[in-house]
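Late entry, coenzyme A complex.
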Amino acid sequence: MTSVREADLTDFPFILPLSRDSFSPYGHYDLSIARWFLTPGTYTFVCEKEANGKVCCGFIMFALMRDEQDGETVLEIMAIAVSKEYRRQGIGSELIKFVKQFNEDSPAGGKPMKIRLSVAETNQVGRSFFEKCGFRVVAEAPWLYPAGQKALRMEF
Ligand SMILES: CC(C)(COP(=O)(O)OP(=O)(O)OC[C@H]1O[C@@H](n2cnc3c(N)ncnc32)[C@H](O)[C@@H]1OP(=O)(O)O)[C@@H](O)C(=O)NCCC(=O)NCCS
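Prediction complete; structure with ligand written out below:
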């Protein structure tokens, strides 16, 4: 059985090494993850699995921000990762489902927000995963990941 709860500082020893392990092909994200975690308006949730007590197996971080183009409030997923030993068991999908529900429950201006994210062009697993979750590539982002990969913008 799995459940999702809001993360707190005691989850750092889980979130930081998982981020390092998951995002190192794209750059050094430790400081960014820590800074985003502490930024008001950014939300971090962890997924726990019941296995002789609760074990953290994944996290998602997102923020509500203003779209540069049309000024509307959008929900931006900044990071999602699942521990290697728990991948391909539906944990990532559960975290995305949670965010979609959060969006339904916290509408900006009375309607759910656009949900968007960036994924490295080379991250085939991430792209397949987000596509399976209903996201579509809408553009190439006008920036590169620190390690040089192109970034694709995806929206739901
Ligand atoms: C991307 C990630 C979060 C997916 O988490 P997960 O818990 O393994 O995903 P799920 O089990 O919910 O998978 C849902 C669907 O995504 C697709 N998918 C997931 N992993 C895949 C893989 N390795 N290869 C191909 N498709 C994959 C499949 O369609 C899968 O459905 P299926 O298992 O019924 O075929 C996980 O692989 C991860 O942490 N990757 C490293 C971090 C990362 O790249 N994050 C995204 C950029 S921020």
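The first helix runs from residue 12 to 23. Will revisit in the morning.
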